[in-house]
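W.,

You were right to be curious about this one. When I first looked at the sequence I had no strong expectations either way, so I just let the prediction run and decided to look at it fresh. Below is the sequence, 286 residues in total, followed by the output.
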Amino acid sequence: MGRVEGKVAFITGAARGQGRSHAVRLAEEGADIIAVDLCEDISTIGYSLARPEDLEETANLVAKTGRRAVTVKADVRSVDQLQKALDEGLRELGRLDVVVAQAGIAGMKGQPQMQAWIDVINTNLIGTINAIQVALPHLTEGGSIIATGSTAALIDINKIDQPGNDPGGMAYVHSKRSLTAYVYELARQLAPRGIRANVVHPTNCNTAMLQSEPMYRSFRPDLENPTRADAEPVFGVQQAMKIPYVEPEDISQAVVYLASDEARYVTGTQMRVDGGGYLKSYDYHI
């Protein structure tokens, strides 16, 4: 028996990166998957987003585990699209146990700057809330909500050399802080109903979001056209451990735990998978 055997998980941002990794790991542990992604670019974001064939590949990888996947192209910024996507998944899979609100974008160096702010807030904050709230009526006792935050939501950006101080970059920080507060209060409201809500906070994660030209420029503003080789040594500024980033699978391990009955009394937590990034930013005094 897998750790989430027989459960159904609704995952946004599932076409690639962390979302795909979460879908595959949950499927390996026995869950069926409702996988949602925008599958097209957002004009203000300076790197390419997932494509329909990426979402199809997620479904193929889930199928190889022996579990079922329902894939739907939908924009988390639209409640109607998310509701239709979830309804389609429920018609085929019959229930909902886990929500992984993973979809997100990084607006560093986004242009026009204030539209980048709007797009990031609408995707990372409002999109996360949309995904959770369309799912709430279908969750029962034992259900688990997991939102993807960021170390950026927790660290004191005045204490370390934080990249991305432009509007798109700061929208990322603000959106992750705000969704963290939302999920914390939601956990209090859901606890008497036996439904859990937690946030996982990755540090730099080795996905297309990190490995992108806008991110390289954010970490190496001293160079006109920095490459991965230029930026990667600087990625370590975010972590206390001597690593440039974590892998999507590292985050997926936390997601599986929070989705499983092993975490049946774990709610309202801020689970950091950050290589000590929080430790680097804050001093603890006994």
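Here's what jumped out at me. The chain has a mean pLDDT of 94. And, maybe more interesting for your project: Strands lie at 8-12, 32-37, 69-73, 98-101, 144-148, 196-202, 270-273.

Coffee later to discuss?

I.
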